[in-house]
Design a protein that fits this description.
This protein has 285 residues and is α+β, with helices and mostly antiparallel strands. It is built from 10 helices and 10 strands. The protein folds into 2 domains: 181 residues, no CATH class; 100 residues, Cupredoxins -  blue copper proteins (Immunoglobulin-like, Sandwich), CATH 2.60.40. The protein has a 5-stranded mixed beta sheet. The chain has a 5-stranded mixed beta sheet with strand order 3-2-10-6-7. The protein is globular, with a radius of gyration of 19 Å.
Length: 285
């Protein structure tokens, strides 16, 4: 196992051997087991199996220097790439998406295309210490049991991906393997089946950002961190679009106690696209 430097990282990844098999267990053995669900052989529909931290640590790993991920400055993290975690499990051939959910209800989705391009990874150790010894010095919030993140050291274009921070969840407790078409069925069928270009662009913003905290319309994957259901968001966006845009840009400018993160980088067009998606056909509800 060696430290990956930016210039060599992608070459090494391309040449990496197939990951070892990962055992799954019916019972949780510790708070630092990773729950596994979805389209995996031996995992019944709706059931959960558990991968032990020690078994994850036994998979092929890499050590990567990340700057500012946990504290100001550099940490060296020991990681398993999501692509190798995928290879280590008997995932169904038609699965094309990894879904991560966190202890606080936050969520994130990674398509196979995103995984191939951006090289997201599961953090097992920070500066040589596993999650039982987290948080790392200088970090007040404990990111255990797991973190999934991406690093510009592996793909220089990562910071340019809109809402890349939503692909870097802390306190990840569960990963699920699924089909994208099933995961987001609710916003690709019915009144969502034939969207115009603006609403279709807004749908991508919803998937990559809003769905981290908000559950979507029926049969659509989303986080549970926010208690505002989709119909309320749609009513708000449709009835007061200017205020909605201001809220997304900086929630505390509208509600001082707001917990939602600010998104000041969204352009006027992106906000309009998001509203076009959220309110599409709402008169049919």
């Amino acid at each position: 196992m060696k430290l990956l430097h930016a210039a060599a990282a992608l070459c090494i990844l391309a040449a990496a051997p197939a990951a070892h098999a990962l055992d799954l267990h019916e019972e949780r053995s510790s708070p630092f087991d990773l729950a596994v669900r979805g389209a995996v052989a031996g995992v019944p529909e709706g059931a959960t199996r558990y991968a032990r931290w020690s078994d994850l640590r036994a998979l092929p790993t890499s050590r990567i220097s990340v700057n500012g991920e946990f504290i100001k400055g550099v940490n060296v993290v020991t990681v398993v790439f999501l692509s190798d975690l995928w290879k280590a499990l008997p995932v169904s051939a038609d699965a094309d998406t990894v879904l991560a959910t966190c202890t606080d209800g936050y969520a994130s989705g990674y398509t196979s295309g995103f995984i191939s391009t951006y090289k997201p990874f599961l953090v097992l150790e920070i500066d040589g210490k596993g999650p039982k010894d987290w948080p790392p010095p200088g970090q007040t919030f404990n990111p255990a049991p797991f973190v999934i993140t991406v690093a510009p050291e592996l793909y220089a274009g990562a910071p340019t991906f809109l809402d890349i921070e939503h692909k870097k969840p802390w306190s990840v407790s569960t990963v699920s393997f699924a089909r994208f078409s099933d995961t987001y069925k609710g916003i690709y069928s019915g009144r969502w089946a034939s969207l115009g270009p603006e609403a279709a662009a807004g749908r991508q913003i919803w998937i990559n950002s809003c769905a981290s905290c908000h559950s979507g319309p029926k049969n659509t994957f989303g986080g549970t961190r926010s208690e505002r259901p989709f119909p309320i968001i749609a009513a708000y966006a449709g009835s007061a679009p200017a205020l909605f845009k201001k809220y997304v840009h900086n929630p505390k400018d509208v509600v001082a106690s707001a917990a939602m993160e600010a998104h000041p980088w969204y352009t006027e067009k992106q906000l309009s696209d998001l509203i076009a998606f959220i309110t599409s056909g709402q008169q049919l509800d």
